Structures are given as C-alpha cells and as structure tokens.
C-alpha cells in the first residue's frame, strides 16, 4: 500500500505545481482535467455497466448552461444579458463572480443528477444498441432545443461573465486550472470509493449478464439509475467549469458538443481500457497529448490522424492500453499463473 | 501494486513531453513580425476559412514583396502562425490562449465568423493583444467595450436592412411582407436583428420567421410556407451553405418570390455553381471588385480580383478582400506607432483613417468600421448563361439596374 500512497502523492504534487512549472500550458492542463473527468464518468456506464451511452454530453451541456445562467441570473436580469446576442454589458464585481460561480457549480452538478434520474427511469430499460441510439438522440435534441431558447442566447450563444480583474494576468488561468483539478480529484476519489464497494460488482454483473443478475435478486434498474446519476453529477460539474473556461457557450459547438466531446469521452475510455479505474485517466491523457501534438505539427491532417488512431485502437488494442498491458504483463497486475494447474491442463490434452 | 510502476513511468513520460514541447516564438523575431490567427480550415466554416486565409496570405506576400513594414528605421516582414479552429468556438478560444501564452504572439488576426470572434475577443482583451479582425460582424462584439478589437467590416445588422428599404421603395413606398429564414448562429441571427429593425422602421410585416439548423442542408419546409404566403421579400442568411441550399431548393421547388435577398453569395460562388438558377438573387456584400477605392498595394478592386484569381484560381469573395485589408491596417498602424509596444500599436489602430482597395477604414469607439457602407449586388446572367454579380445599390456604386420583381419560373 505504501507504493500507492507514493503514486498518489506524486500525482497530487505534480498537479499542484504544474501550472507554475508549465505556466503556458494552464489551459491545456485544465482541459485535460475535464477530459479525464468525462472519460472516467463515461466508464461507469460504458466500461463497468456495459451500457454504451452517448448521452452523457447532455449533462455536460446542461451543467454548462446552468452554471453560467445562475452566475448571471443571481445578480442581473438574464434575459437582458443575452438579448440581441449580448449587446448590453453588465460587470460582475469579484465577489459576485466567485459567489455566482460557486452557486452555479452546485446547481450545475445537482440538476443534471436529477435529470439523469428521471431520464434514466424512462430509458434505462433499453439495452445494447437501442440504448446507445436513444442516448445519441438525447444529446442531439438537447443541442437543437437549447439553440432555440432565447433566454440563454439561442443561436447567438451565451457569453459567460468575464473573469474579474483580480490578481493579474495569470489569475484566470490558475483559478480555472485549480477548479478543474479539484473536480478531477473529487471525481477520481469518489469513483475509486464506489469501485471498492459491492456497487462495482453489481454493475459488472449487469454488464456480464443482466438477466442473470436480476434472477439473483439484484434490482438492476435501481443500480443502473444510480450509476447514471453519479456520472451526471460529475459531468455537470465539468460542464460548468468548462463553460467559464471557454467564456462563450454555443448550443451545438460548445455545450451539447456530441460530435466532439461526446465521441471523445467514449474514445478516451476505450483507448485507455474500459472497465478499469486507471484506463480512462491514461486514455484521456494520451489522447489529449496526441491531439494537441497533431494540431501543432500536422495542421490540416489531425482528423486523418485521429481516424488512424481509432482504427489502430480497434484492431490492435481492443481492450485499450490497460488491457494490452495486462495481457502482456499479467504478473504486474497481480495475476499469477499456477504452474501446476497449467501443466495439468497441458497433460490432459 | 505492480501497476504503480507502469503508471509512474507513464507520468514521467508526460512530464518530459510537456517540458520539451515548450517552443517559444517572440512577436518580433529578427526582421519578422509574427501575427497569430486561428482559422477554420475544417468544419462547417471551412470554405470561408480558406477564403480568409487566402486573403491574409495574399496581403502578406504583397506587403513583404513591396518593402515590408518600416518601424524605427528598420524593415520588417509579416509572418502568420495559423492554427485550425475546426469552426468550433471552444477550440478557437483555446487556440487564442495558446497563440498568446505559448507561441508568444503579441498581435492577432481574426478568425472567420462572429461566433468564433466572440469566443476569441475576451482572450485577446485579457492579454491586451491588439486584434484586427475581418470576419466577425456581430453587433454585440462592438458594444462590449473591447479596447483591443478592431473590425474592418460593417456590423452584421447592416447587411440586409438595405434590401428591405429597396423593396419598400420598389413598392412605391408602401410596406411589404417579409419572409425570413435564418441559421441558428451568431452572425445570421444578427443579420435578422437588422432586418427586424428595417421591418419596424418601414412599417412592414413579417409573415415567416424561421430558424434554420446549423449545417444547413434543407429548408424545404420554409419554402413550402413561402409558396403559400407569397411574401414580397424572402430573406435568407446562413453562411455559404445557407446560400447554396436556398438557391438549390428554390430552383427545385420553383418558388416564385419578387425579391430574394441573401448573404454569402460570392463566398458560395453561386453564379458559378448554380448558374442561371441563381439569377436575380440579391446579395449583401462588404465589398465588390467594381468599387473604386484605391491603395498603393493592390491598386484597386479590379486589380486585386485579377491578382487573386491568378494566385488562387477563383474570383475573390469579400471575405478575402476584407482579410487582405486587415493586414494593410496593421502595416499602417505599426508604421504610425513606430513601435511594437502593444499599447502604442493599439492607439495607432484606434486612430486609423485610411483608404484601401477594399474601402475606407476608420474605427468607432467600439471597434467597428464606420466609414464603409455595405453594397448589394444582384446575380445577372446573359443569354449564353454566363452569370456575374453586379452592384445595384447604393446608387453611388451601382453598375447595373436592379431587376425587380424577379420573373416567375414559368416565364424564364
């Protein structure tokens, strides 16, 4: 266990000093934290429970709009803020900004959780492809609907409150970095705690054979809904932070960005290895670095590279990086081959 | 746990990667002035993104080959770092941050579209980086009190209100009925606000007010309504795709409407792609090659169009022209500031008062260009089916007379 503590404190220390060691990369690091949160929470459904959802982007977008709306609405009339593409200008004082952000983030986390409970009750009875298609529709519909709601800016988008002038140039980046890093730690600790309980076993039972799990007396529906609500909580939180970080919310391109974020979270979890605790973390990190690298050095080819990456993952690493490592070095994962048993089996043949 | 070691080595690899990839450019390296730009090279704005990039490149080459920028007795050349923002505001904001804090860029050129400019402006503003942008027309960009944002173009609400005035004029001063279809996007919705103002001003009536989805590929539902309601004017705006979709479906469905007003006809190369089907479409434009503005670098619109065609193989849409103009503005400001200090350059930009081949440029307090009117052109075809865009309004620049009303499809 001592090694574990060593690992976690190393990561924590890296996380805490990173924005000061690599000040120019603060935004990228913040986004990385958000990506890890999204991949980790997707993994609860896609990896542990075997329900491939494309709907988590719904909670992310919802959180984004909610956080910004609350932050504005607490102090100014929201309708005037967004009217005519945000022509009128209101300025938050630093106290208003941070209070608004704090309340906004709570709302951004709680409301999507409730929504997940309600929607989950309605659609988690669907299985396999049907569930995937249904959730895909949810994300797309949310994008189109929010693009028509005037009070949140409709098609003209929603400019979130600008960061107040406190603490110099780097303050904004540092604030959002530590916010997203905090969200990452919170998510990771929570998910790790959940995975160490019976809950994970139940999710795995649902994945492996839902009917059998039900036959064994597990109320699968209840656990499926709870699992989704946990994801929604952290997705909403991540969305709220991301909205403030980007500074401008567009219905389909930033908030309900199913085409990018919605697909990326699946991709990252699969790349790292779904159904593992560390897989999504590693997957998101590798993916982010890969993508940023291609953006810089192979401008115009990044999507081709992304396509190649997907093909390579599917063909060579269907179990993800963690799965591949596990197969290659089973002993490092605590798997022991019983020599006697193996020999016995060989002799049988 | 054995896996710990794998993860640890992985983390150290990440650290090494990050620390080695810190490449720093400076704003002025040797004899180069480095400008940064996030451009939509992929995604829904990619065609206009390329028009923008071509416009920038054209001006950079021209200014560099004609002696560059003279600051403090030394000659400098322009260079642009491009990134692809994928037509996504989130990405654009991130790239602006990256250009400024990682690449050390101290002067920026704008992206394509109002939405992306809205996402980038807060970032450039925060760092005090002067940005001359040529493709963000949304009115709300200029009411935010941004100090470092300068737009060489007229704001979006002025695009099509002229068309309504024109329709009223042709209706003997009597109010008209207007059908509107606008994409759900910052720019198009701003054009809508302008049209709404004009409708109110002239006492006209809107009979259809549809919002169209992004990635506009079908507007048949709106056109069915237009066929039923028979409005005097149909106004459509949705960037390049909106223009293409409108023309295609209006021709397919044989929709008769006395006046069809749009945006982005030249960027969509309508007259080339749809030929006679696009005839009579009335288009808002920031610039047209027949306008008689002049400067020392491109001479005038006709010369610019010819040079551009030679270089890139197509007639320049106004998106390219205004992008080229942005560089001329920067050059002028650098030379007047005679310094690379961001504040001084900003003040010089604010005091800009010049003529370019693209039009007069003078910035208002909010950063928009107030010295350049919009023009309307109409697609006109001759007997052989060759189509051309001809300016019909305002009268000062008109090179042809407006054809109104549009002949019915059955009579064409």
Walkthrough of the structure:
- The complex is a heterodimer of chains A (349) and B (412).
- Chain A has 349 residues and is mainly α.
- Chain A contains 16 helices and 2 strands.
- A two-stranded antiparallel ribbon of chain A has the order 1-2.
- In chain A, helix 2 packs antiparallel against helix 10, helix 2 crosses helix 13 and helix 5 packs antiparallel against helix 10.
- In chain A, 48% of the residues are buried.
- The model of chain A has no long low-confidence stretch (mean pLDDT 89).
- With 412 residues, chain B is an alpha/beta fold.
- Chain B folds into 2 domains: 199 residues, Rossmann fold; 158 residues, 3-Layer(aba) Sandwich (Rossmann fold), CATH 3.40.50.
- Chain B contains 12 helices and 18 strands.
- In chain B, helix 2 crosses helix 11 and helix 5 packs parallel to helix 6.
- The termini of chain B are far apart.
- About 2% of the residues of chain B have low confidence.
- Chains A and B meet through helix 1, helix 2, helix 11 and helix 13 of A and helix 1, strand 4, helix 3, helix 4 and helix 6 of B.
User: How many strands, what sense, and barrel or not for the largest sheet of chain B?
Assistant: 7 strands, mixed
CATH level 3 topology of the largest domain in chain B = Rossmann fold
Oligomer state of the chains in this structure: heterodimer
Mean pLDDT value of chain A: 89
CATH architecture of the largest domain in chain B: 3-Layer(aba) Sandwich
| Unreliable segments of 5+ consecutive residues of chain A | none
């Amino acid at each position: 266990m001592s090694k574990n503590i060593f690992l976690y404190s190393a990561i924590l220390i890296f996380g805490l000093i990173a924005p000061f060691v690599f000040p120019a990369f603060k935004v990228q690091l913040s986004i990385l934290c958000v990506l890890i949160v999204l991949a980790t929470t997707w993994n609860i459904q896609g990896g542990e429970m075997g329900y491939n959802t494309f709907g988590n982007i719904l909670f992310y977008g919802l959180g984004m709009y909610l956080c910004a709306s609350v932050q504005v609405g607490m102090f100014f009339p929201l309708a005037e803020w967004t009217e005519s593409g945000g022509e009128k200008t209101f300025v938050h004082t630093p106290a208003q900004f941070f209070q608004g952000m704090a309340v906004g983030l709570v709302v951004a986390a709680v409301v999507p959780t409730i929504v997940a409970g309600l929607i989950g009750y309605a659609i988690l009875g669907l299985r396999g492809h049907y569930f995937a298609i249904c959730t895909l529709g949810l994300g797309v519909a949310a994008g189109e609907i929010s693009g028509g709601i005037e009070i949140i800016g409709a098609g003209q988008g929603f400019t979130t409150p600008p960061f107040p002038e406190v603490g110099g140039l780097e303050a904004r980046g540092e604030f959002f970095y530590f916010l997203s890093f905090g969200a990452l730690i919170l998510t990771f600790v929570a998910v790790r705690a959940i995975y160490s309980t019976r809950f994970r076993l139940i999710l795995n039972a649902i994945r492996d054979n839902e009917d059998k799990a039900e036959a064994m007396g597990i109320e699968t529906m209840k656990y499926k809904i709870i699992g989704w609500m946990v994801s929604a909580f952290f997705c909403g939180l991540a969305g709220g932070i991301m909205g403030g970080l980007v500074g401008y919310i567009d219905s389909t391109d930033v908030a309900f960005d199913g085409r990018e974020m919605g697909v990326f979270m699946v991709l990252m979890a699969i790349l790292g290895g779904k159904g593992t605790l560390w897989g999504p973390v590693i997957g998101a990190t590798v993916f982010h670095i890969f993508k940023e690298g291609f953006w810089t050095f192979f401008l115009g080819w990044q999507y081709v590279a992304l396509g190649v990456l997907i093909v390579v993952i599917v063909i060579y690493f269907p179990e993800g990086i963690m799965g591949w490592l596990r197969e290659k070095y089973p002993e490092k994962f605590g798997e022991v081959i019983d020599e006697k048993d193996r020999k016995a089996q060989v002799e049988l043949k | 746990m054995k896996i710990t070691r794998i993860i640890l080595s992985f983390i150290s690899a990440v650290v090494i990667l990050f620390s080695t990839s810190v490449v720093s450019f400076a704003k002025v390296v040797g004899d180069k002035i480095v400008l940064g730009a996030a451009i939509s090279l992929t995604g829904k704005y990619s065609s206009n993104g390329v028009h923008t990039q071509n416009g920038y490149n054209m001006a950079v080459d021209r200014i560099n080959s004609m002696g560059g920028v003279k600051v403090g007795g030394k000659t400098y050349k322009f260079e642009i770092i491009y990134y692809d923002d994928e037509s996504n505001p989130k990405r654009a904001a991130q790239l602006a941050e990256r250009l400024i804090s990682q690449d050390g860029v101290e002067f920026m050129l704008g992206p394509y579209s109002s939405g992306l400019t809205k996402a980038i402006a807060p970032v450039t503003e925060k760092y005090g980086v002067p940005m001359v942008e040529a493709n963000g027309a949304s009115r709300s960009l200029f009411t935010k009190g941004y100090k470092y944002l300068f737009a060489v173009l007229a704001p979006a609400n002025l695009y099509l209100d002229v068309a309504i005035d024109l329709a009223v004029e042709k209706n003997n001063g009597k109010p008209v009925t207007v059908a509107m279809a606008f994409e759900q996007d910052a720019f198009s919705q701003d054009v809508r606000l302008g049209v709404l103002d004009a409708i109110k001003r002239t006492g006209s009536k809107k009979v259809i007010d549809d919002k169209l989805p992004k990635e506009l590929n079908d507007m048949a539902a709106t056109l069915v309504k237009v066929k039923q309601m028979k409005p005097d004017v149909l106004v459509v705006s949705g960037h390049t795709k909106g223009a293409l979709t409108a023309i295609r479906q209006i021709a397919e469905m044989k929709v008769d409407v006395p006046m069809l007003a749009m945006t982005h006809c030249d960027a969509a190369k309508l007259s080339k792609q749809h030929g006679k089907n696009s005839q009579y479409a009335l288009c808002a434009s920031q610039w047209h090659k027949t306008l008689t503005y002049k400067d020392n670098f491109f001479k005038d619109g006709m010369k610019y169009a010819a040079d551009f065609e030679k270089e890139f193989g197509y007639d320049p849409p106004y998106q390219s022209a205004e992008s080229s103009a942005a560089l001329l503005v920067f050059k002028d400001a650098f030379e007047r500031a005679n310094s690379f200090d961001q504040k001084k350059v900003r003040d010089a930009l604010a005091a800009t008062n010049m003529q370019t081949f693209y039009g007069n440029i003078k910035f208002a307090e909010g950063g928009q260009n107030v010295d350049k009117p919009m023009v309307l052109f109409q697609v006109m075809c001759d007997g052989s089916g060759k189509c051309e865009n001809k300016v019909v309004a305002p009268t000062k620049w008109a090179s042809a007379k407006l054809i109104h009303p549009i002949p019915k499809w059955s009579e064409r």
